[in-house]
Amino acid sequence: xxxxxxxxxxxxxFTGHLYCQExxxxxxxxxxxxxxxxxxxxxxxxxxxxxxxxxxLPQSEAELTLDSNTNVIAAFxxxxxxxxxxxxxxxxxxxxxxxxxxxxDYNDPNYGLLxxxxxxxxxxxxxxxxxxxxxxxSDLDISVPLSSxxxxxxxxxxxxxxxxxxxxxDDNLPxxxxxxFQGLDxxxxxxxxxxxxxxxxxxxxxxxxxxxxxAWEGDSxxxxxxxxxxxxxxxxxxxxxLADNAFNGTNTFTNSDEFYNCDLDVYDIENxxxxxDTSVEIRLTTxxxxxxxxxxxxIILNNVITVLNSQLPDxxxxxxxxxxxxxSREVTIDFTVYNINSTEILPxxxxxxxYADTQLIASSQTINDIPIxxxxxxSIIVAIPDGIPExxxxxIMVDDDGSGNGIVIELNELNNTxxxxxxxxxxxxxxxxxxLLGCDxxxxxxxxxxxxxxxxxxxxxxxxxxxxxxxxxxxxxxxxILIPDNYQNTTLPEFIYIRVETEICFEIYRFELLxxxxxxxxxxxxxxxxxxYNDWFNIQGLYDIFERHQLxxxxxxxxxxxxxxxxxxxxxxxxxxxxxxxxLLPVGTYYYVLHLNDTNYKxxxxxxxxxx
Length: 612
Description:
Helix content is 4%, strand content 43%. It has a six-stranded mixed β-sheet, with helices on one face. It is rod-shaped, with a radius of gyration of 47 Å.
């Protein structure tokens, strides 16, 4: 299969005046496509032969004939004339507004500055719906400039004309790339040479290559030093287009030499480009000195169209979604690789490079072959290195091996990149809350109701708040405290972290759990009768809390009969001062002295009644 690769950056278009617009790429089409063109002049004859007319004809016609097996892909109407422009015309009684207008000036030595224009309009839908038949163009009004400035008719540059370009699809055609360039460039006695270079071309195969032109104001009678060359090779199409008179009022599509002061021509250029060429140079000349006077034809080039065999993919990439996580440097990137503007499958394993600004941060590749017109979506989680700032531009390049090099030859190497600004969400600052104090229930632990601290927070839903014992658990949302209103600390000191979800992130709060030795509760009676209830002098809030305490029990005569500590509790038996140590003491009232050995408390004293 023959191939041709042309790589050009598309230039954005806008409606409005485009002064002195050099010829540049307008649109590109890839597929089993070709083009045809129709049009006609509005001059009644060549203005340099019949010199007595000045006004345009009111209308002219042309016939569109496409094969029944073709589909119209795009169509554009062009019209041009003397003056600064008429942006509304009629085609088959349908008003057509210009999408854009180009103008160019010529400083005539006898008449001063003269302006010429060319308009274009996308009429794809109209041609698709109307189809084959006769197209009548009318209502191009340039009467004001012709009447107000005698220069146009005086130097015989009074002209008007129109053309329709139709790009169509035919399954019987080879895979072609069509490049439509447009603008407005002029050559004349003041500027006798114009070189237009089509850059970034990579010729893989020149089989069947052709080039077409739409130009205005050429005269068959003014062949002074006139030439059209491609890559320094003069091209011609005799007998219609001669090597020394390329712009001579002809229409190659109808084989007509009565396309007065307009040229609609196409040339075979197979032998004018070579495999390996990276550019095509178009050179136009006019002008010849005769007897010390420069004679030249005024030629206005409106567009250039190339049809080139090609079979190449065209990888583009689009970011579908970016997900950043609060307090994380991981970014989830959803993206789609396309092979839309192509004439060949994009192979699997086409590399994809991800850059934070200019630093490579990740690589991926396509998984499957992507067909012509197809796409493939995928996702990747990228860890952003610590050296990258929180705000950066994410650049994604398809067909990039991570070093800026591609491995796939494409139709267009300049559309492989997409980007978007990224803003990482840093870990929120920890906000401090007042400590929470609890009474020691043993071994420096206490029972806390953590939800008390919610009184200081703004919470929309109970599901928005969770409690954790570490910042790491909070960040990962793991090991949340299940029953925050009945929590017993496990260490001392211990901090509690609160995570409150917000719309884009979460808030972090922290408070300390403090354990204090609360006053013990001393009962006034106990019954050591071995019934399993109240069988010992159970001082609540004492044991395993005031671990260094000393309990002294005295009888009514002041005799010390029991001495206890954290490991020895009084069960009604004596271990001091009496001969009946180890035996139950008699029913009666006993006096206690409790030394807590805590600087916050004085010794506690009182009476307890023991009975059976």
